Amino acid sequence: MIREQYLRQLWELLTPIPERLRRDLMFDYEEHFRQAAEHGKSEEEAAHELGDPRMIAKEMLLGYRVEQAEIRNGGITHVSRAVFAAVSLGFFNLVFVLGPFIGLLGILLALWATSIAVGLSSLAAIYEGVFGDAWSSTQGIFVAIALLAVGMLLGALSHWLTRAVSRVTLKYLKFNFRMMRVKKQ
Fold first, then answer.
1. SS3 of 185, please?
2. Closest by alpha carbon to 5, among 40, 50, 63?
3. Is the model more confident about 184 or about 169?
4. Which of 30, 89, 157, 168 has its Cα between 20 and 30 A from that of 75?
5. b/e sequence 117-126, b meaning 16+ C-beta within 10 Å
6. What SUPFAM superfamilies does its record include (predicted)?
7. Do 114 and 154 contact (CB within 8 A), yes or no?
8. Distance of CA 125 to CAs 30, 39, 117, 121, 128, Å?
9. Rounded distance, CA 133 to CA 156, Å?
10. Does residue 135 form part of some domain?
């Protein structure tokens, strides 16, 4: 009965992982219970040897999220999911992973907003050149071109920084995951 409860709980905790992969992951745990029974161990002993299914599921989910982020070339959405999976593993990750990650996301968001605002301000420069008194229409067009160019450069910088933050965060999460595995063994 312990075996069934343990495996069912682990299965349910792994629902974010696709079913085919989840079956592969579950095979090792089912095999552990079979081997324990062959060696005369009780289901309680086998479950105790494996550890808390919630912690196992969190570690597996982190591994899955990191793998998905790598497959998707470090997309910020997938890296964010991996960060939140890491945070669920303990207070250390809450402080040293989530805090800096949210700070970096805030900086990136501000940089993206600035690049868009500067790019869109070119429309105001054109309007001012055509209908305003500040400068002539030719000057307005040149100012608009300059603002659009600066907005595009900021956009390119924002894109590059977003990719860099994703890559560095993903590398740290992989390192963190490997360290947890070493510590566990």
1. coil
2. 50
3. 169
4. 89
5. ebbebbeebb
6. MFS general substrate transporter
7. yes
8. 68, 80, 12, 6, 5
9. 33
10. yes
d(CA 131, CA 86): 55
Does residue 64 have a pLDDT over 90?
A: yes
Rounded to an integer, what distance in angstroms lies between the CA atom of residue 37 and that of residue 162? Answer: 51
* Helices 53-71 and 2-13, packing angle to 10 deg: 30
pLDDT mean over 135-145: 92
pLDDT above 70 coverage of the chain, percent: 97
Structural domain total, the chain = 1
Any domain includes 4: no
Helix (H) or strand (E) holding 6: helix 2-13
Backbone angles phi, psi at 18, to 5 degrees: -55, 150
3-state secondary structure string across 95-135: HHHHHHHHHHHHHHHHHHHHHHHHHHHHHHHHHHHHHCCCC
Domain presence at residue 82 = no
Token duo for residue 122: 């070119």
81-84 contact pairs (CB < 8 A, 24+): 82/169, 82/170, 82/173, 83/169, 83/173
Asked if residue 168 belongs to a domain, the reply is yes
Per-residue pLDDT at 97 = 86
